[in-house]
Design goal:
By secondary structure, the chain is of the alpha+beta class. It has 29 helices and 20 strands. In eubacteria ppGpp (guanosine 3'-diphosphate 5'-diphosphate) is a mediator of the stringent response that coordinates a variety of cellular activities in response to changes in nutritional abundance.
């Protein structure tokens, strides 16, 4: 570079720095400015030899990130300094964390440390490594939420300046942004940044779609401005009459949200009905905020008819991100729906700045919604039960979930994600209550645990000491917390069964003259096509590996000469990680409907589902049931056009499936007989009683019992135990 160029660049750097101080949302004291200056000088020095892919000096990147942090997110000087330094430790070995701590203090160094840890996560494309990275990144949330906020700003600037990158790199970064960073920004209440991240994500993952919608919005902008003006004109006079101080703004919805609506409703751009929103922002002191919001609401609805289903009142109960506003959808001129958002200036700042504005406006010591969310998140992060991919999926659910508000019996308000069930509610109160849930009452009426709660429901949980979670609970629970706790409880229970299974296996092998040692365990794991030794013991424990199967194993083993020749022909199977303490699911069987029936089916060629995928069944006219993946390209059209032909379907582990069976009993009636029968059933660990009926006729007793069992071995065991009861003469299976 020539001297002139260097001078120009230095002038541009100085200008960018001055602008940073000017646009800060917080008022900066002299000490703040000194701190920022010190950080700026260190960053300039550390990055002096670096350039970005576009060729510009690297220092422009940290300044831009600091600017987003200062202006758009509105954080304080500490965060601005940390943003300026966010790449220093990683890019320049001369600058250590200790040095940063000595120069800037503990807080800045802790934030920089968190950011460095995130950057140094391996850039693998493998899903599980990537998921593990996200998990580690999210763990920094409990150290300091500011780490994540600065990371979001860093990601936003990277997305804004991605043009000079290779296409495959652009796509990877954009997908990651849509997958985790946009939902995070949403959750922290940074709605503007969330929208920009989503739009930029779409720009690089589906460029044609992005540009098409972008151009259409541009074309319709003029017409839209005229429409908003006409709309506003109608209510301006009434608002002025009430002496209100306000501004009315129209804004188009984001490209990404329009795209989402087009896909969800299966419509074209022109058919998306609320492509823009009108925002009324009014001046008010804190005491009158609510009153004025409803006053403006009544003025708007005097002129335009509201859509009663589309009223969203986040003023009476703010979202857990802290968002407050009143949203109404009204029928505007020319028969068009318009979304109207009513917010005070304070609410508007919180909507735009999220976290930072919260602290500016925090009234007294009110517990902050973001803090409670981070506490909840901490639980999800600390339960290491789930694998990383499941964890990130669950985490995403918690990020984007719409909320409902339900009441406890005492009238306390709890927020839960939309679609939550009484089981989620129970776990949200306390893990112990969740684990012991026997049933639930909603608005005084008993409901099944799978009942979907609605906003305003009053929920009472009924508990019992001798209840334990069963695998069906996973179908009823939607929140990460509930699912995590249920999974770990089921895992513990399976381990108990596996312990029993190990002893049973030891006894059975002894009869077959085989010792239970590492070699025989390895051989059995391979023979029964399992993954871990725990799988083997568990399946013996529940009886899905029975005597005949073990005899087959023994004979295959004793035929040593044949197996020697076979092993010469076929490479021996190497068992990996046999000692892992997990019981894996062998997704080897498809079941349909609520009853989980086994039916004939074919796998569809359009999406090639494989065991374990989320799937549904589609009843074709000529080829019976065909299985499609939930995210199959044809799924949307099948579900919208032929909803009546769709069947629920899921892959299960056939060894852990439960079956219904009916047992009939007869014998001589005597005192306490019914009591003895129910005692026997409830002491059989893996048997669940569905219904029971008895009758006695002149001293002769007969009964029918419907039970749910995992397999026939268990059923046989139960029937043998029933036969031993005094007075029972005959026990048979229907």
């Amino acid at each position: 570079m020539t001297e002139v160029d260097i001078e120009k660049e230095n002038a541009a750097i100085a200008k960018a720095y001055k602008q940073l101080l000017k646009v800060s949302y917080q008022t900066l004291s002299i000490d703040d400015k000194k701190l920022i200056r010190k950080a700026f000088d260190m960053a300039v020095e550390a990055h002096k030899d670096q350039r970005r892919k576009s060729g510009e000096a690297y220092i422009f990147h940290p300044i831009a990130v600091a600017k987003i942090v200062a202006q758009e997110i509105g954080l304080d000087a500490t965060c601005i300094a940390a943003a300026l330094l966010h790449d220093v430790v990683e890019d320049n070995p001369d600058y250590t964390l200790n040095y940063i701590e000595q120069t800037f203090g503990k807080t800045v160094s802790r934030i920089v440390d968190g950011l460095t840890k995130i950057s140094s996560l391996s850039k693998e494309t493998d899903v599980s490594t990537q998921a593990e990275n996200f998990r580690k990144m999210l763990l920094t949330l409990n150290d300091d939420v500011r780490v994540i906020i600065i990371k979001i700003a860093d990601r936003l600037h990277n997305m804004q300046t991605m043009d000079s990158m290779r296409a495959d790199k652009q796509e990877k970064i954009a997908s990651e942004t849509l997958y985790i960073y946009a939902p995070l920004a949403h959750r922290i209440g940074l709605y503007n940044i969330k929208s920009e991240l989503e739009d930029l994500g779409l720009k690089y993952t589906e460029p044609e779609v992005y540009h098409e919608i972008h151009n259409k919005i541009k074309e319709s902008k003029e017409e839209q401005d005229i429409y908003i003006k006409a709309f506003s004109q109608v209510i301006v006079d009434s608002l002025d009459k009430e002496g209100l101080s306000y501004t009315i703004k129209g804004r188009p919805k984001s490209i990404y949200s329009i795209r989402r609506k087009m896909l969800k409703q299966g419509v074209s751009f022109d058919e998306v009905y609320d492509k823009f929103a009108v925002r009324i922002i009014y001046k008010s002191d804190f005491a009158n905020e609510k009153f004025l919001a409803w006053k403006i609401y009544s003025i708007v609805t005097d002129h335009f008819i509201p859509n009663p289903i589309r009223l969203r009142d986040w003023i009476s109960s703010p979202k857990s991100t802290g968002y407050e506003a009143l949203h109404i959808t009204v029928m505007g001129p020319k028969g068009r729906w318009v979304e109207v958002q009513i917010r005070s200036e304070r609410m508007n700042e919180i909507a735009e700045k999220g976290y930072a504005a919260h602290y500016k406006y925090k009234q007294g010591n009110a517990e902050d919604a973001l803090d409670t969310w981070i506490d909840k998140l901490q639980e999800a992060l600390e339960s290491n039960e789930t694998n990383a991919v499941d964890f990130v999926e669950q985490f995403k659910l918690n990020l984007y979930s719409k909320e409902i508000y339900v009441f406890s019996p005492k009238g306390d308000l709890k927020s839960l994600p939309k679609g939550a069930t009484p089981l989620d509610f129970a776990f949200s109160i306390h893990t112990e209550i969740g684990m012991k849930t026997r049933g639930a009452k909603v608005n005084g009426k008993l409901v099944p645990l799978s009942h979907e709660l609605q906003s305003g429901d009053q929920v009472e949980i009924l508990t019992s000491e001798n209840i334990r979670p069963n695998s069906n609970w996973l179908d009823y629970a939607t929140t990460a917390r509930a699912r995590g706790k249920i999974k770990s409880s089921l895992k513990d229970e399976k381990k108990v069964v596996a312990e029993e299974g190990k002893e049973i296996l030891r006894r059975k092998l002894k009869q077959l003259k085989i010792a239970l040692d590492e070699k025989s365990i390895n051989e059995m794991v391979v023979f029964f096509k399992l993954k871990t030794s725990l799988d083997l013991f568990y399946r013996v424990g529940i009886g899905s590996i029975d005597n005949p199967m073990l005899k087959d194993f023994a004979s295959s083993r004793s035929n040593a000469f044949m197996s020697y020749i076979k092993s010469k022909i076929r490479k021996p199977t190497v068992v990996q990680n046999i000692d892992k303490d997990e019981i894996t699911a062998k997704y080897d069987s498809l079941v349909f409907g609520k009853e989980e029936e086994k039916l004939d089916y074919k796998l569809s060629a359009c999406c090639n589902p494989i065991p374990g995928d989320e799937v549904f069944g589609f009843l074709t006219i000529n080829e019976g049931i065909k299985i499609h993946k939930k995210n199959c390209p044809n799924a949307l059209s099948l579900q919208s056009n032929y909803a009546y032909r769709i069947m629920q379907a899921k892959w299960i582990d056939s060894s852990q499936q439960e079956f219904a069976a009916q047992i009939t009993l007869s014998g001589i009636d005597n005192m306490g007989l019914v009591n003895n029968i129910t005692k026997v059933i409830s002491s059989n660990m893996h048997v669940n009683m569905k219904s029971i009926s008895f009758q006695s006729d002149d001293g002769i007793f007969s009964g029918k019992i419907n039970v749910i069992v995992k397999n026939s071995t268990m059923l046989k065991k139960l029937m043998e135990n029933l036969k031993k009861i005094n007075g029972i003469d005959k026990v048979s299976r229907v």
